[in-house]
Design brief:
2 domains, 6-stranded parallel β-sheet
């Protein structure tokens, strides 16, 4: 499923890959419409019917992930509202064990996320995730979402990498397809990103796992690339 011996760098998505996507699902589909209803004196149904289609219309764009954009569009403090339900932020199963094994293997680990820097800080405060990886890059630093083909070229500015020795792990098939098209040699899908939702079907061309315990044993057996590779 993963050829660990052929790798130098592992790019990791955050939400739905390392952290339970339930926090974000609950916020955008439940908490935000409810607080929007409170603010504008609407029924929960009216608020949801107004807010959710507006959000979905931006799917895949940088705006989709941008708290500044939604704070202005909805005239609400999105980061503040996210903090209200911050107790829902948490790791997916076996993630800390996987990250420890990744570090022990000698591979370079970089979180590559579409998360805006403001909620990113909130999530790092809650989890200490930044202490478990070598680097973190937000797509907002580059002005392009990971779904954008140009993102992967620009990523070299902040996290130089050799595409032929890099693995990308993500719960988004569209992101994985973008990474694959950019030449990243190995891609792996997460099929159970949200602890409160049903698991997803496999991608026809990209291998997938439900949880990291499926690949930790092979990672621990990794033999590094020969010197000079």
């Amino acid at each position: 499923m993963v050829n660990w011996s052929a790798l130098e760098t592992v790019f990791l998505d955050m939400d739905g890959t390392l952290l339970d996507l339930h926090f974000d699902t609950h916020f955008w589909l439940e908490h935000l419409p409810r607080r929007y209803a409170d603010h504008y004196n609407l029924s929960p149904e009216e608020a949801r019917d107004h807010v959710v289609p507006m959000i979905m219309a931006e799917h895949g764009s940088l705006n989709w992930y941008c708290t500044d954009y939604w704070s202005e569009r909805l005239a609400l403090d999105i980061t503040g509202l996210k903090a209200e339900v911050g107790d829902r932020i948490g790791y997916r199963p076996h993630v800390t064990e996987f990250l420890d094994a990744l570090r022990a293997s000698g591979l370079r680990s970089v979180i590559v996320t579409n998360c805006h820097p403001d909620p990113l800080r909130l999530k790092l405060e809650r989890t200490g995730l930044n202490q478990r990886v070598d680097d973190i890059v937000s797509s907002h630093q580059l002005g392009k979402a990971k779904e954008n083909p140009g993102f992967w070229q620009d990523l070299h500015q902040l996290a130089p990498y050799n595409a032929s020795t890099t693995l990308m792990v993500d719960d988004s098939f569209s992101v994985l397809e973008s990474a694959r098209d950019a030449g990243i040699s190995q891609c792996l899908a997460i099929l159970a990103p949200d602890s409160q939702q049903a698991t997803r079907d496999h991608h026809p061309d990209i291998p997938g796992i439900h949880h990291f315990d499926e690949i930790i044993p092979d990672l621990r057996l990794r033999r590094p690339l020969p010197s000079g590779q």
